[in-house]
Amino acid sequence: MFFVKTRQRTLAIGMVALAASAVLTGCAGSTSATESPTASATVHEDLKAMLPEEIRKSGVISVATPLNNPPAVMADASGHATGIAAEVAAGMGNVLGVKFEFTESAFAGVIPGLQSGKFDVSMGVIGDTPERQKVLDFVDLMVNKSVLLVQKNNPDGITDLESACGKSIGVLAGSLQIPKVKQASDACTAAGKSSIQINEYPSTPDGQAQVASGRVAAYIAPYLILNHTAKTAGNGETFELAAASYPENPWAIGLGKDRGQFAEALQGALLTMVKDGSYAAILNKYESPDGALNADQVLINGAGTAAFAK
Q1: Phi, psi angle pair for 252, to nearest 5°
Q2: Which of 55, 128, 249, 275 is such that its CA lies 20 to 30 A from the CA of 310?
Q3: 61: number of Cβ within 10 Å
Q4: Contact 302, 253 (CB under 8 A)
Q5: Pseudo-torsion of CA 151, 76, 284, 296, nearest 10°?
């Protein structure tokens, strides 16, 4: 089972600025959510014993993440956390004998919140990178690659970052994509062309709305999220994806360092779901089978290893 806690009265699924959005209203606090029907149901006492003592006592793992990135993680019409990460969390909770409680958080606040111990984990849209491994540990969760979202019919003719010289590109503040766009911008100026204007936004829906309005030429973010947006916003008539894609380090479950065997417990729970088929069933439910890891890729701090060679 998992719960969602919201810090604001109104949550938006998808893009507030588009007709495809659904506006959700909820009170602060926790509300229960329906468990995934595909989730594993047997508590593994050996894995539960590896959890930090305070989690075993409370029976709750707190999760900080933006809840506006379908199908990875979002809030439903009742304010409950749903999507791939939420259902995987429900299954892992069944294996570990605990509940996952989701709290809405801007992405820029997630890593500081994990470092300070304010939250136990983040999952849904956080990526494992060698740089982030200096301050956090990760249990790798899903395959990840970046793509560019553009207006339908691509009026600016953007096919990849190399074709974006002199144009504006939106990114999520604090995301993996920022260094990639900066590198492309530097290549533009080195070639005697105009730099890329990089606009950072606090949420993916904010960035998508800027593309829809024409204020930025493209928005770069994970394929899983932007492919869903391109297919669903305006019945598929608002956006499309540019041709290029950029392999990234995996999406993961992030947690603070020095948490004992917490990472191993999470890894064991996820591996249980991979092996019994419930993990793949969840990704298939959300039409995202390409995001699935195999058992050999469910690693602790796997970014930078041969398992995720780019």
Answers
A1: -150, 175
A2: 275
A3: 27
A4: no
A5: 100
Class of domain 2-143+249-308 (CATH, top level):
alpha beta
Q: Where do the CATH 3.40.190.10 domains begin and end in the chain?
A: 2-143+249-308, 145-247
Its sign, for the CA torsion 66, 69, 73, 79, is positive
Relative orientation angle of helices 262-276 and 278-285, to the nearest 10 degrees: 80
Give the integer Cα–Cα distance in Å for 207 and 214: 11
Q: For 145-247, CATH number? A: 3.40.190.10
Please give the average per-residue pLDDT across 166-186, as a whole number: 97
Element of type H or E holding 95: helix 84-96
**Closest by alpha carbon to 259, among 270, 251, 267?**
267
Spatial contact of 290 and 143, defined as CB atoms under 8 Å apart: yes
In angstroms, the CA 111 to CA 255 distance is 9
Helix residue ranges, H only, the chain: 45-48, 53-58, 84-96, 110-116, 177-190, 204-213, 223-232, 262-276, 278-285
- Average per-residue pLDDT in the chain? 89
Q: Are 74 and 24 in contact (CB under 8 A)?
A: no
CB 168 within 8 A of CB 195: no
Determine the distance from the C-alpha atom of residue 96 to the mean position of all C-alpha atoms in its chain, rounded to a whole number. 22
What Rg do the C-alpha atoms of the chain give, in angstroms? 19
Closest CA to 119 of 233, 259, 218, 1: 259
Q: Which amino acid is at 213?
A: S
